[in-house]
Amino acid sequence: MLSLSGVRVAYGRIEAVRGVDLTVGAGEFVGVVGSNGAGKTSLMRAIAGVVRPAGGTIRFDGADVTGRKSHEMVARGLAMVPEGRMVFADQTVRDNLILGSYTRIGRDDPGIAADMDKVLGLFPRLAERIDQLAGTLSGGEQQMLAIARGLLSRPKLLVIDELSLGLAPKILDLLFPVLTALNREGLSILLVEQMASYALSVTARTYVMENGRVILEGASAQVAADPRVLDAYLGRRDAA
Ligand SMILES: Nc1ncnc2c1ncn2[C@@H]1O[C@H](COP(=O)(O)OP(=O)(O)OP(=O)(O)O)[C@@H](O)[C@H]1O
Ligand SMILES: [Mg+2]
């Protein structure tokens, strides 16, 4: 589904991503963890076509998409829920959702209506607030909206950057099962997550990034048991 080889991202002289290889298979649920500034967001922005990679190759759904712009990536089936959610605060929940379907408007209106029903079923809190301005939603509800908006492009791969940012555990206990259910239906998911314990428990495979590089990858259960991960991210020094 997605395959990165030697991907680099630079901002002027700052090298945020220094040659990353990463894959997400069809139907796979893959995590990326790592400390602040490791380059996770920069990598996701390269994948989604928001920044142009300074080097390397990105293949998606059978095509070389290196350097393609974000709108083309959406049309090809990649949806990104960006760090900080970026919902349109002064628009209603409904209008935010409609914006998510923009690549399909006029070409697949019955499909959009069906997907709208589906995402509102996944997130009943959004259904109750459909005419409310997105800026008045709680952080958790905004994250639900950002995910729902992404789903309305009917993606093959959903990329989520920092699902848990600023959210209470109670909300996360609502959100993670939705992702698991979507993945079981066949959606490929790439999840960047600071709360490593959550990410490692829901994903099948995990990459650990440090200083722009992947320092460890493997089955999530194996990564979770690695002393470096226990030490740095799971706060269980003694267990290591
Ligand atoms: N637009 C930018 N211009 C210049 N430098 C940037 C820019 N965005 C990120 N960086 C730098 O690139 C490096 C990687 O940042 P990035 O946001 O990708 O990391 P991250 O792993 O997502 O961190 P966090 O966990 O805090 O979200 C950092 O040193 C950061 O300061
Ligand atoms: Mg980030």
UniProtKB/TrEMBL annotation:
SMART domains the UniProt entry points to: AAA
Domain ABC transporter: 2-236
Record key words, sorted: Amino-acid transport, ATP-binding, Nucleotide-binding, Transport
InterPro entries: AAA+_ATPase (IPR003593), ABC_transporter-like_ATP-bd (IPR003439), ABC_transporter-like_CS (IPR017871), BCA_ABC_TP_C (IPR032823), BCAA_Transport_ATP-bd_LivF (IPR052156)
GO molecular function: ATP binding; ATP hydrolysis activity; branched-chain amino acid transmembrane transporter activity
One Pfam family recorded for the sequence: BCA_ABC_TP_C
PROSITE patterns the UniProt entry points to: ABC_TRANSPORTER_1, ABC_TRANSPORTER_2
Coiled coil feature spans: none
Keyword Nucleotide-binding: yes
One annotated GO biological process: L-amino acid transport
Family that this chain belongs to: Belongs to the ABC transporter superfamily.
The protein's name: ABC transporter ATP-binding protein
Source organism per UniProt: Elioraea tepida
Lineage: Bacteria, Pseudomonadati, Pseudomonadota, Alphaproteobacteria, Acetobacterales
